[in-house]
Design a protein that fits this description.
217 residues, mainly beta, five-stranded antiparallel sheet, three-stranded antiparallel sheet, 2 helices, elongated
Length: 217
């Protein structure tokens, strides 16, 4: 074999090195492959205003993770970008009695893989301490009482009263009012409710419940 021929064979073999070696000579972007999707995503409402997320990291080459959230059926949006090898996230300053949905995305450059979606609902930080009912007119009653907030911040507490027919158990009237309550405070309330029919005699077939709380951050 002539020297010139051996030189061409050598150059040809040298050209094959990047192909046989896989990533030698490739750019970082060319080395990328799709990451494994996170699994076992869990959302746990640990309080009225905080959700803890945990998941299993199934990739060993991700650049990081994006955490997506949707509130009450709204569109998803990014709430956090986390470093590689992260498997937990604390979502705070939430609103009580609200459903939050999540999914986690593993990313490598422009490649990504999503976890399944999960949802959880934050708890209620307020409770009705006392209540009583009194008649104002034939069709009108007043339900009064006291509500307490266990929140660390001031809040707007929505209270709903419902009056039922003592004979048929059918709903006769409902009314809602909102009270401002200081952090860890109590507040008196009085809500007037008009019924469909005149309810005679003694009457105590009613309910009082906290139906919404807005934390004032």
């Amino acid at each position: 074999m002539s020297l010139k021929w051996r030189k061409w064979v050598f150059l040809a073999l040298l050209a094959l090195v990047p192909i046989l070696g896989g990533c030698e000579g490739c750019t970082d972007k060319e080395k990328l492959r799709k990451p494994g999707a996170p699994s076992n995503l869990v959302a746990k409402a640990v309080s009225y205003n905080r959700m803890d997320l945990t998941w299993q990291d199934n990739s060993n080459n991700e650049d990081g993770f994006n955490v997506y959230c949707a509130v009450g059926g709204s569109e998803y949006g990014t709430i956090a970008t986390l470093a590689a090898n992260t498997a937990a996230y604390e979502h705070s300053q939430l609103q009580p009695m609200t459903e939050y949905s999540y999914y986690v995305q593993a990313c490598i450059g422009e490649e990504y893989a999503n976890s399944s979606e999960v949802s959880a609902t934050t708890s209620c930080p307020a409770e009705i301490l006392t209540s009583e009912i009194g008649r104002i007119h034939n069709h009108q009653f007043r339900i009064s009482g006291k509500v307490q907030s266990h929140a660390d911040e001031p809040s707007l507490v929505e209270i709903t009263v419902s009056i039922y027919n003592p004979d048929t158990a059918e709903l006769e009237g409902t009314a809602t009012d909102t009270s401002y309550v200081e952090a860890h405070g109590t507040k008196d309330f009085a809500i007037d409710c008009v019924t469909t029919h005149v309810l005679l005699g003694g009457f105590d077939n009613y309910t009082v419940e906290v139906t919404d709380v807005e934390i004032l951050y």
